[in-house]
Amino acid sequence: MAANPPGENVGVPTSADASRILGEITPVTRRSQQLARDVTMAPPLLAWGLAWIAGSLLFQYLPSPAGAIAGLGVCAAAVAVNVLIRPREVRRSTERRFGLGWWVLMATSPLLVAVAAPGNAKVTAVFLGSLWAVGMLLYGIGVRDLPLAAVGLGIVVVAAATRIAVPRQSMIIVGVAGGLAMAAIGGWRLRWKR
Amino acid sequence: MTEPGVSIAELAGLLASPLDPVLTDPTRLRIQAALHAQPDGTAMSFTILRKALMLTDGNLGTHVRVLVDAGFVSTEESWRGKRRTTLYRATSAGRAAFDAHVRALNAIIQASAAPPPHE
User: Fold this and answer.
1) A182 within 8 A of A52, measured Cβ to Cβ
2) Chain A residue numbers touching B81 (CB-CB < 8 A)
3) Does some domain include residue B106?
């Protein structure tokens, strides 16, 4: 195929051609944005989703303090996956700024736990999960990732509802439901590799 | 009839601005659109561009080279071990040219819908 050299005379397209050309741009724009979201968010969502499921199950069913330590261990594994598996195919201009935001949220979490002083370790886990879900919600808004923002908001709502309705099961419900939602979206977004 | 907010004078101005010759090719316009859809400064690999546009390697490579030569797209290389990835991003000139080209196409559509001028 030949690529026209720049500078040559251009015929003005008809109105129908112009409409068709503009119509062809819209799906490309949508696919480009979708692919960028899929590439950048699939590994962290999958890693954090699985970490939430495993962590909450371990925390719920292993005796203390082994459960808490195991739960923290899987969270550390998810952080490691985020740091080590960085997609090379898309580089966002806002990557460093948002990355710094996540680190700040993680680093200030213990301080916020100290401020809120939750009643026990399981309430602390729900509180931290809700806090990080707000981070997801804000990040989703920031990068215009609606599903991510919706999952973040959903986790916060479920956490609040279960804390009121079924406080003893709140941690396991939030962990498994939130983890499943994240892992499902992360797994679905890996489809770009096919 | 013109769209609300667009005067005849504005329409005439838009029609007077020539279509960009580089972006007149539909494939190049689609490539520029895929990069333009990303926030300013965001870069995409050849693989992702190819998937977004559903083009062959040869077709994409040929047209993206023209866009790079025109200064509408910039490239950067990223290395992981011995594996190289070339990333492409829309430049400011490319974004401005794309916006102007789309405006001109819209003006053509609006002009065709406008009533003929009265004597």
Assistant:
1) yes
2) none
3) no
Cβ B37–A28 below 8 Å, yes or no? Answer: yes
Q: Is residue A15 domain-resident?
A: no
Residue at B65 is within a domain: yes
Asked if A117 reaches chain B (Cβ–Cβ under 8 Å), the answer is: no
Position A12 scores a pLDDT of 78
By residue range, what is the domain housing residue A133?
Answer: 32-193
Q: Between chains, do A19 and B38 touch, taking CB under 8 Å as contact? A: no
Report helix, strand or coil for B74.
strand
Q: Which residues of B touch A35 (CB under 8 A)?
A: 44, 48, 51-52
Residue A52 lies in a domain: yes
Q: Is residue A3 part of a domain?
A: no
pLDDT average per 10 residues of sequence, chain A (194 residues): 48 86 93 93 93 92 83 87 85 87 93 92 92 95 92 97 95 96 95 81
Establish if B44 touches chain A: CB-CB under 8 angstroms.
Answer: yes
Q: CA–CA separation, B101 vs B18, rounded Å?
A: 8
Return the pLDDT at A79: 85
Q: Is residue A46 part of a domain?
A: yes
What total of structural domains would you count in chain B? 1
Cβ-Cβ contacts under 8 Å between A and B: the total is 123
Which CATH number covers residue B47? Answer: 1.10.10.10
- In contact, A47 and A87? CB cutoff 8 Å: no
Strands B43-45 and B83-90: antiparallel
Q: Is B90 on the interface with A (CB under 8 A)?
A: no
